[in-house]
Design a protein that fits this description.
It is built from twelve helices and 14 strands. With 360 residues, it is of the alpha/beta class. Helix 5 packs antiparallel against helix 6 and helix 7 runs parallel beside helix 12.
């Protein structure tokens, strides 16, 4: 069976981009392998119509992926070629020969693919695909590639591995049908877990924040955060997990150096001699939380998020993440690449991971 995706973009606006990868990744996660992915300008209706017409005769599923403002126009284009019957108003329209879909190019669209599109395809092809997920953090790309390559050798073509990464996290999905022996999938998981063991935080479809909250609950620990350049993102990620109120004590956003000193007990000489962005400052921020005695685990972050440096002259992406308990505090230095959002979100994930590693 064949499936194709048409991505509609606005080529006249250089600042416009369609984040279609989250949607195409969702197809792969469900065991639907795309034979064609076409990128077409949305304002070229003749070309769009021509490709829909061709793919309708060649494929079992044709899906248009676009920004939300183009969804209505995309549905109209599908209606012109999907034959008589019910007018297409939702996500999917199904005929005897083909499934058509219009999917927004965002995380909600990816969830729609997994919840609605994949089950519909599975019923038509009379095949259900199983999925196992591994999550790793801060893993170098070459380590991930080597681990996936080793796992593929074990799999011998009996299953499919798909790795995708964002903001310092990598998600490795193992997709196989019910005819694949479970022992092969289990061996693939073992190989991946062994090769990436120092970066692994889950075998299962769980977020990093969920794993940290679970570990805190297991050990009956409370956590507090002191954040500078991550803008409360670490604490926000933790409290987004249901039941986090049982383990989260407080979060302090101490951007100004005076706040670091007055709220967290950072020594003024440390700020003056070492700088607000330094391993010593990160250490003292975490120590200040722990010294109050209200938490068992502390996370502190300080760094340069960008887009420019500050008076220190340190490069964008330079940061320190302190994670500790009353027994010890460790400080991790990173020089992260990317824009402000990428630097900040990557630092948040790394901080969560180091905290999880400290107490798991």
């Amino acid at each position: 069976m064949k499936y194709a995706v048409i991505v509609l973009v606005n080529v006249k606006n250089p600042l416009s981009s369609v984040n279609f990868q989250t949607v195409t990744d969702a197809f792969l996660s469900g065991g639907v392998f795309l034979d064609e992915v076409l990128i077409l300008p949305y304002d070229a209706p003749t070309a769009v119509s021509s490709h829909i017409s061709r793919l309708s005769s060649e494929c079992d599923g044709v899906f248009l992926v676009c920004d939300g403002v183009l969804v209505s126009a995309a549905r109209d284009a599908v209606n012109a070629f999907s034959g008589a019957g019910e007018v297409f108003e939702g996500v999917l329209k199904e005929t005897k020969s083909c499934i058509y879909g219009v999917i927004p190019a965002n995380d909600e669209g990816a969830r729609t693919v997994m919840a609605d599109v994949i089950p519909r395809i599975d019923r038509r092809r009379n095949q259900r695909y199983c999925r196992m997920v591994l999550g790793v953090a801060a893993a170098p790309e070459d380590r991930v590639r080597a681990a996936v390559s080793a796992a593929e050798q074990v799999a011998e073509g009996r299953l499919f591995l798909h790795a995708s990464g964002k903001y310092g996290l990598t998600r490795i999905e193992i997709v196989y049908n019910r005819e694949t022996p479970k022992m092969i999938a289990d061996e693939v998981v073992r190989v991946l877990a062994d090769q990436l063991k120092e970066y692994l935080y889950t075998i299962g479809d769980h977020s990093l924040a969920e794993r940290l909250v679970d570990a805190l609950k297991l050990h009956r620990m409370k956590i507090s955060t002191a954040e500078s350049f991550t803008a409360g993102g670490v604490g926000g990620a933790i409290v987004s997990v249901a039941g986090a109120s049982a383990v989260f004590f407080e979060g302090i956003n101490a951007y100004d150096s005076k706040a670091k000193c007055e709220r967290l007990g950072v020594n003024e000489l440390t700020i003056r001699n070492r700088g607000a962005v330094s391993d010593e400052t990160a250490y003292e921020m975490a120590a200040g939380l722990l010294m109050k005695g209200n938490c068992d685990v502390a996370i502190a972050t300080t760094g340069i998020a960008g887009p420019d440096s500050d008076e220190s002259g340190l490069p964008k992406g330079h940061c320190y993440l302190a994670v500790g308990t009353k027994q010890r505090i460790r400080v991790f230095r990173y020089d992260l690449l990317g824009d402000r959002e990428t630097v900040t979100k990557t630092a948040i994930n790394f901080a969560l991971f180091h905290a999880y590693e400290e107490i798991k």
